[in-house]
Amino acid sequence: MSFYYPLGLLGLLGIPVLIIIYIIKSKYTEQTIASTYLWTLSERFLKKRKPISKLTGILTLILQILAVIAASLLIAHPVFTIKASANDILFVLDGSASMNMSNDGATRFERAQSNINRIIDNSRGGSSYTLIFVRDGANVVFEGVTDKDQAKSDVNALSAGWSEADCSSAVGIAQEYFDANPSTVVYLVSDKQYEARNMTLVDVSGGEKNFAFTDYGYKYESIGVCGTGSVISYASDANVSVELWASVNVGDEAVRYGGTSVQLKKGEPKEFEIRTTLAGFASLELRIASRDALAQDNTVVLYDEAKSQDRKVLIVSDLQDTVYLKNAISGAGKAVVEIMSSKKWEQDVAEGYGLYVFNGYSPSSLPKNAAVWMVDAIDGSGAGSGLSFRDYESPRDTTGPGSYYSAKFADEKELSSQQRSLVKGLLRRPVAIRKYAKYGVPRSFTTVMRINDNPVVVTGLNENNDREVVFAFRIGDSDFGLSADFLILVRNLVDYSFPSVLERTVYKSGETMNVNVVPGCENITVTAPSGKSVTLDTVDNAVCEVRLDETGIYTLKVKKTGAEEATLYAFAGVPLSESNPTGGGQLALSGEREYSYSDGFYDNLLAFFIAIAVLLLADWGLYCYEQYQLR
Question: Which domains does the chain have, with CATH numbers?
């Protein structure tokens, strides 16, 4: 036996003090009686119990001494060593999204915590506890803790995440502990049906009812937007209600626009369609209205990229063929387009647009912090475009077969993977051009279309370091405006001119969202569904990475120089694999188990509290007895 606080034994010095007090204490008591006769009767009565009366003082002393001994031992906190009775216990705890499923008011993760705490409580004192938490990777939360209360407190402080988590990632860490001590008892606490070797599986799954989307999307029909997808029921056959909610403008509250009932068979996904008269939307939500064990996988939010990016375009032109550009940019480019005359532009330079298109007109200076298109703007070479005009090129015979030049698109093999988006989806039919301008083009520019070796459509950065597109010919001097490739190229060039802050708007929790730092960007702030915000480093990075650890809607605030702050949204959902976790495969610790226990201990103080209470109660009983006998 040992003591946590040996100085507590100094309390035993109270024993000689008690003995001294007992010795010097007066043995007589003063009594008041009614008469001599009564006293004689009392004396006769007391003589019969005199032996017991003599013992009460000694018994009281003994009880008080025992109480002092018990109190001293309680303060010293004795520890009784029990040979070969304790274990090293290691827990591998699953913290994946499926552990958030709830049943009877408790989640699977909470049941896992209760099971671990129960194992700790039932283990022999002296055991050590180590926990490996598998959430965003496998991490050792605590190691070799021998205090049960501390271990349980650390377990209760954990929470499950919303991404996929494979407990096999923890096997390597657990193997190191098992190699160091083959008698280590390993508990794998999960809702997945692992086949475990040298480990004990603690299954916390409960067969909860759960529905989920296995596919989702939308399409435009003649009457309006149609929500599409498929749903599944994992636990049993069910009749599920699916609803479509939408907001027309960015930031508006979603409104219900329709719904449908889907009859499901267990484990079989079934398609659905929800038709609406909605002409367009900023955000569209598909919701499973039926309640289940995991509400977070019952909603998917989709965003209209054009509205989320706020594409505002100004065309400065006095030409009739401007209509081709306007229709192409507003349609294929999904942008809001305005037209202004060159005279009005010179009088009042307009601001706040993301793209300026100068068609047949050359401004004295190019706008800053915005993309620029120069279409047949010959004199624009001196306005900071970065190009130098050389000469016009036109056929001598303007009526015969050779009256047009044949322009061809750049071969994808000549372009880098990033530049290939400029020619994505083109049919690549030759373009007939009557007249074009020869430019001296910097090497940093990318040629999209050429006539022989002369570039006629190029892209690059102008002297303001803004994205620029140059057409060396007038759309009306070609058959390009009537071709399908014109719309496809305009779409690609608009995408290039409005570089997307987000590559996509729908993710799975646990994925990394790439946030592009667009030209002129001063600040980007990302706010998670929980309200946590982070400001991205837009100075040293062209692309910032944000890990999506939560489910729900992420809000991005993008501030550009000279423009109002733009708000973008992205949605992160529960991975489909976590909606119905089943067999997790085989997990095994190599090596043979050895049973070499360490010494345990017993340090429960409850017995001492009980002993002190009993001794004090007995002492009080003797005191009451003594007082009664003397009256």
Answer: 2-77+605-629 (no CATH), 83-205+581-602 (3.40.50.410), 211-303 (2.60.40.10), 312-497 (3.40.50.880), 506-576 (2.60.40.10)
Q: Which residues have C-beta within 8 Å of that of residue 619, sequence separation ≥ 6?
A: 60, 63, 64, 67
**DSSP string covering 508-549:** ETT-EEEEE--TTEEEEEEE-TTS-EEE--TTT-SEEEEE--
Strands in 251-335 per DSSP E: 255-264, 270-275, 283-288, 299-303, 312-317
pLDDT in tens, 185-243: 999 999 998 998 999 999 999 889 999 999 999 998 888 999 999 999 999 999 999 99
Three-class secondary structure of residue 384 per DSSP: coil
**What are the CA-CA distances from residue 301 to residues 284, 285, 502, 573 (Å)?**
6, 4, 15, 9
Find tokens 């939560």 and name the residue: 550
**pLDDT tens-place string over residues 254-279:** 999 999 999 999 999 999 999 999 98
Residue 55 Rama label (left phi>0; alpha psi -120 to 50; beta): alpha
Q: What value, to the nearest 5°, has the Cα angle with vertex 116 and ends 111 and 122?
A: 125
Which residues, in sequence order, are CB contacts of 122 under 8 Å at separation 6+? none
Element at 347 (helix H, strand E): helix 342-347
d(CA 361, CA 344): 12
Distance CA 515, CA 558 (A): 10
Query: Which phi and psi angles does 49 have, rounded to 5°?
Result: -110, 15
Length of the chain: 631
d(C-alpha 374, C-alpha 458), whole Å? 10
CB 442 within 8 A of CB 386: yes
Residue 362 has pLDDT above 50, yes or no: yes
Q: Are 282 and 250 in contact (CB under 8 A)?
A: yes
Helix spans in 3-147 (H):
14-24, 36-48, 50-76, 108-122
Measured between alpha carbons, how far is 286 from 280 in angstroms, rounded to an integer? 15
User: How high is the pLDDT of residue 255?
Assistant: 94
Report residue 243 CA to chain centroid gap. Answer: 25
HSE at residue 414, side-chain half, CA atoms within 13 A, is 11
Q: Are strands 454-461 and 512-516 parallel, antiparallel or unpaired?
A: unpaired
Q: Model confidence at 176, in pLDDT bands (50, 70, 90)?
A: very high
The arithmetic mean of pLDDT across residues 360-384, rounded, is 81
Instruction: Confirm if 126 and 85 have CB atoms less than 8 A apart.
Output: yes
